Amino acid sequence: MPSRRDNDNTKGLSLDVDEFLDQERRRERALKMQDAIRRGRTTPVAIRLDRFTLRRLKALAALRNTGYQTLLKQFVVERLYEEERRAGIIDARGR
Question: 90 vs 77, 82, 95, CA distance in Å?
C-alpha cells in the first residue's frame, strides 16, 4: 500500500497548505467586500468609433494614465450629467 507521502497532493506548492487556505479565505472576504462597496457590475456594450477618434481617445487616456474604456465611460457619465441638467431632470446643484 502506498504511503501518504507518495500521494501528497501538496507536493510542489510553495506555501504551507494551511497558509494557502488562509490566504484564499482572505481573498474571498476581500472580493465580497468589493462587491458590497461597488454600485454594481457594468454591462458590456459595443460601439463603433472611427480609427482617428479611437486613436485620439487612447492617446488622451495614456496621458491621464488610465484605460481608454474607463476614460470613455467617464466622458459618457459627465455628458449625461450635463444633458440631464440642461433638460431640467436634475437641478444645477445635482439634486
Answer: 14, 9, 6
Name the phi and psi angles at 37, rounded to 5. -80, -40
CA distance between the termini of the chain: 74
- What would the grid cell of residue 21 be? 487556505
Helices within the chain (DSSP H only): 17-37, 51-63, 68-86
Contacts of 20 (CB under 8 A, 6+ apart): 13
CA distance linking residue 64 with residue 89, whole number of Å: 31
Cα(95)–Cα(86) distance, integer angstroms: 13
pLDDT tens across 15-55, in order?
677 887 887 787 787 777 766 666 667 888 999 999 999 99
